[in-house]
TrEMBL record:
It is found in: Nucleus. The keyword DNA-binding applies. This is Transcription factor 7 like 1a. GO terms for biological process: canonical Wnt signaling pathway; cell proliferation in dorsal spinal cord; dorsal/ventral axis specification; embryonic camera-type eye formation; endothelial cell fate specification; forebrain development; generation of neurons; head morphogenesis. The keyword NAD does not apply. PANTHER family: TRANSCRIPTION FACTOR 7 FAMILY MEMBER, TRANSCRIPTION FACTOR 7-LIKE 1.
DNA sequence: ACGCCTTTGAAGAAA
DNA sequence: TTTCTTCAAAGGCGT
């Protein structure tokens, strides 16, 4: 059983945090040389090419060890499809990148994400935290506009529009802030969730201080300005909140949030009764609609009879009644998803490509090319997302969403895939093939493709600060220890001080010791027994100073070197149960 | 109209 | 305990 630090879940931050990094020599060096160096697609391409070559030359076992192996259907590997290339071909005009030089992609770094949380020492209760982060930032001119959840859904929102997702209205960074503004209307927060945020520790109500919030939205005009963002309208203007309402009004997926008092009534307005079943799923106890919630009627299968015709169109005949009735609560986004959300627009803007498959391949490469600290930010964000999600939807389980998507031809694939295939497929998976040499985006750094591909750097293994916790248990124990997905072989880094008994122990250790992994993160290579750090190590508990970009970075570098030859550090978070 | 593709990560189920 | 499967976002493409 996961250990709860504070019993309440407030101590999540305290528990969690261990940071470990996994290393790849090349990547490390590169990072050290130029942490912020931009990797371009060209590099990716080159790296890919190299990878392919290398793969063929190097032993499979070796490769397997060094590379993360994406879990994919073996089939895909058998017949790798180069979406990237294909997409490029389709794009006959305009070349891949708009800019030949491909300036790179300045990361819209989320300001020190850790600050808000770390400052408190632990993550505040989800609701509070969430509010803290979101509400203050929402600038809704005339909050009334959106806040009146009772008003009919905005015309631009059709019934079919998923309640949760409005990518175009989300600031690039917002995704990182998960259920953010999208979900909360700028209006006055619910009374129970009022801006008067209780201090997690003291319980004393307090208004979020700008300083606390700012870190999350450091989008200084200059920083952001560097990159013309497709979502520019969301970009905060100087002195103004990031989330200004679009001319047409604020399209908030969850107008209901704008309401103070009667959330339920609001909710009902936003969600039809059948759409919004009351607890456990539809709304959190707090009554806060969550972006993750998608009404079945809207997104999933239509409700029987009561739903709008459009909704019906989607539903296949006999639908599970119960499921339909339940709102669809989406899974919290993981670090990579958050990253993708943020960077997709940028990549699309840089490239003429629009196909997600191709874009995702690029993003995958970029992800690997990110420095640990950069990735750590996303892991941390993801961790917080999970925490928040779990707090908002205590009873929710990822399993709830199983089967909602149409099953793929798994069975057939499985049949096709024999043991051999699996084996071979794994090896093959190491390489992502999507970059045709000739059509790559030009990039200055194309010469060092290898770096991108850090052969061995499984993203997972990369510093992933986030503590993966079981969703359910997360409430109780945000940071649970879990073994790393096996599909991606990784190097395991022994964690010092930690009994290798099992991954589960890590959670306890983390909880018990305030900074077990911190030391790792900081670069103190601790040699621990065996537990592999397969998952991101949450470092929320770390002192802000340590988390400061500079310090953290340095630490990371240190750890990097120290670990350079050691195997990637994986974070183990598992419930002791 | 709907599913696939593609990526990584998290979580749960199955072995 | 390990392995495998599903889902999360996204949007063009194919059926």
């Amino acid at each position: 059983m996961p250990q709860l630090n504070g019993g309440g879940g407030d101590d999540l931050g305290a528990n969690d945090e261990m940071i470990s990094f996994k290393d790849e020599g090349e990547q490390e060096e590169k990072i050290s040389e130029n942490v912020s160096a931009e990797r371009d697609l060209d590099d990716v391409k080159s790296s890919l090419v190299n990878e392919s070559e290398n793969n063929s030359s190097s032993s499979d076992s070796e490769q397997a060890e060094r590379r993360p192996q994406p879990r994919q259907d073996s089939e895909s590997y058998e017949k790798p499809r180069d979406y990237f290339t294909e997409a490029l071909r389709r794009q006959q005009d305009g070349g891949f990148f708009k800019s030949p030089s491909y300036p790179g992609y300045p990361f819209l770094m989320i300001p020190d994400l850790t600050n808000p949380y770390l400052s408190n020492g632990s993550l505040s209760p989800s609701a509070r935290t969430y509010l803290q982060m979101k509400w203050p930032l929402l600038d809704v001119p005339g909050t009334a506009g959106l806040k009146d959840s009772r008003s009919p859904t905005p015309g631009h929102l059709s019934n079919k529009v998923p309640v949760v997702q409005h990518p175009h209205h989300v600031h690039p960074l917002t995704p990182l802030i998960t259920y953010s503004n999208e979900h909360f209307s700028p209006g006055t927060p619910p009374s129970h969730l009022s801006p008067e945020i209780l201090d997690p520790k003291t319980g004393i109500p307090r208004a979020p201080h700008p300083s606390e919030l700012s870190p999350y939205y450091p989008l200084s005009p200059g920083a952001v300005g560097q990159i013309p963002h497709p979502l520019g309208w969301l970009v905060p203007q100087q002195g103004q909140p990031m989330y200004s309402l679009p001319p047409g009004g604020f399209r908030h997926p969850y107008p209901a949030l704008a309401m103070n008092a009667s959330m339920s009534s609001l909710v009902s307005s936003r969600f039809s009764p059948h759409m919004v079943p009351h607890p456990p799923h539809s709304l959190h106890q707090t009554g806060i609609p969550h972006p993750a919630i998608v009404s079945p009627a809207i997104k999933q299968e239509p409700n029987h009879g009561t739903v709008s015709p459009t909704a019906h169109s989607k539903s296949p005949g006999p639908v599970k009644k119960e499921e339909d009735k339940k709102p669809h609560i989406k899974k919290p986004l993981n670090a990579f998803m958050l990253y993708m959300k943020e960077m997709r627009a940028k990549v699309v803007a840089e490239c003429t490509l629009k196909e997600s498959a191709a874009i995702n391949q690029i993003l995958g490469r970029r992800w690997h090319s990110l420095s640990r600290e950069e990735q750590a930010k996303y892991y941390e964000l993801a961790r917080k997302e999970r925490q928040l999600h779990s707090q908002l939807y205590p009873g929710w389980s990822a399993r709830d969403n199983y089967g909602k998507r149409k099953k793929r031809k798994r069975e057939s694939k499985q049949q096709e895939t024999t043991a051999e295939d699996n084996f071979s497929s794994r090896n093959k998976k190491q390489c992502v093939q999507y970059l045709p040499p000739e059509k790559m985006c030009d990039s200055p750094a194309s010469s060092h493709g290898s770096m991108l591909d850090s052969p061995a750097t499984p993203s997972a293994a990369l510093a992933s600060p986030a503590a993966p916790a079981a969703t359910h248990s997360e409430q109780a124990q945000p940071l649970s220890l879990t073994t790393k997905p096996e599909g991606r072989p990784q190097h395991h880094f022994p964690i010092p001080g930690k009994p290798s008994s099992s991954a589960s122990s890590s959670s306890s250790s983390s909880s018990s010791s305030t900074q077990p992994s911190v030391s790792l993160a900081l670069g103190s290579p601790v040699s621990q027994s065996s537990p592999l750090l397969s998952r991101p190590i949450p470092f929320t508990s770390l002192p802000p100073s340590m988390l400061s970009p500079t310090t953290f970075h340095q630490a990371a570098l240190h750890s990097h070197h120290a670990l350079l030859q050691s195997q990637p550090l994986a974070l183990v978070t598992k419930s002791t149960d």
